[in-house]
Amino acid sequence: MRPSERTPEQLRTVTLETGVNRYAEGSCLVSFGHTKVLVTASVEEKVPGWMRNTGQGWVTAEYGMLPRATHTRGRREAAAGKQSGRTQEIQRLIGRSLRAVVDLKALGERQVLIDCDVIQADGGTRTAAITGAWVAMASAFDYLREEGVLATNPIVDQVAAVSCGVFNDLPVLDLDYEEDSTAEADSNFVLTGAGQIVEIQATGEKRGFSRPEFDRLFQLAEIGCGELFALQKAALEAVKR
């Protein structure tokens, strides 16, 4: 039995609330159980200097945790004067994940900046951020098309992410902190709606894990992302109604 009493293939309660920031072109408050991330998508009519005159746009991300997102207060990274290696790795992952499903030429010479701020952390903050970031980005593109800025939708597919792990020798989906902190193996899967792999991060924490265990983790990730894709579509449809 999992601490949360969920079945091995059961996600936490997931919500995707759009339009939570009145100023951003797109926004989403994503919750995976007690993990909550506020995501905003801001569009700039310019690209980084190294991309000028290429006819292509860019999508990038920033990630951070608020001081009291965890059990004890963490110091703001701005106060420390530098970002941690973990923060840099996660925001690069978010950016890569979104660019994998965007036609940068269709975007034109514009930059989309995705800000992911963790309000509360209970495991799976990076996967929640990616899942919510796609919704915020899609909302921003819908807004730009309504305003006549974009002729076509630059998004070519959905992307979502979920964690899986081996907990008490059992492969399970969507680890919360209690499971993540004691799991024998931990992994994050980033998948597209077409079933393509964007990235897999898998680590043996207390022991190595077998190929059958990995195959089961992958299967669980496909199940979980399938549910997340449906929730993403529903969140966008709710805005249009």
UniProtKB/TrEMBL annotation:
It is an enzyme of class 2 (transferase). Phosphate binds at residues 86, 124-126. InterPro entries: ExoRNase_PH_dom1, ExoRNase_PH_dom2, ExoRNase_PH_dom2_sf, PNPase/RNase_PH_dom_sf, Ribosomal_Su5_D2-typ_SF, RNase_PH, RNase_PH_bac-type, RNase_PH_CS. Its EC number is 2.7.7.56. SUPFAM superfamilies: Ribonuclease PH domain 2-like, Ribosomal protein S5 domain 2-like. Gene3D superfamilies: GHMP Kinase, N-terminal domain (3.30.230.70). GO terms for molecular function: 3'-5'-RNA exonuclease activity; tRNA binding; tRNA nucleotidyltransferase activity. The keyword tRNA-binding applies. It comes from the Bacteria. This is Ribonuclease PH. The gene is rph.
